[in-house]
Amino acid sequence: MVSKYLPFVAVAAITLIWCVSPDKNEITDVTYSPRNVENAIQRDANGAAEITRMLLADVETGEINSKGLSELREDVLKFASAQSRANFKTTDISWSEMGPDNVGGRTRAIVAVNEDLIYAGAVSGGLWRSNDGANTWNRVTGMPFFMIASIAVSDNGDIYVGTGSNFDYSGGEGNSGFRGRGIWWSNDGGETFSIVDGTDPGEFNSGNWSSNDALVKHPNYDNRVWYGSNSSFG
Asked: How large is the average pLDDT for residues 48-69?
């Protein structure tokens, strides 16, 4: 008896499902409404600066204490170095660099002082030097800032390095980039560097002197260079 009525039950079930199912061809009326971006963080250099402030600002003052953060970073580096030395004392592990060491990346600045001595700067890799006509390279560890955009070597041998670049973007879209921190100078062959007076925008700021894309040695004075930055030129 049950099998006799099964076809009728199946037909009734299919009819019910068809009646209650939405019309697949029905067009839903969707009205466009723009996003509310009033409180959204901008996806540009100003937005990146705002994110930096949110992450690094003092919770009490709301301002970035550049000096305090620099001191904290130095303390962390000293602690890490001490830990590394302690670990090496208690282990026989030795390390060999495997690479890659043959990838140039975005090299923004190259200066050939002579046929052997060459300086090169990368957008996030720091300052490099070759003493054998570019056959081998070593990083100039005396230069503390990695975002290199321009280099000039004056006739007296002083090295000038511009940091930060307008050609890269630090807002999260396009080419990756980092804010610079002024123009740096060395008079001891790159052993040590000091920031040129008047060019320091602060370690975590994106204002004047945060990008310095051009440096050229002066043709008439052996201790001067021409510069071009996001704030001025001269």
From this structure: 76
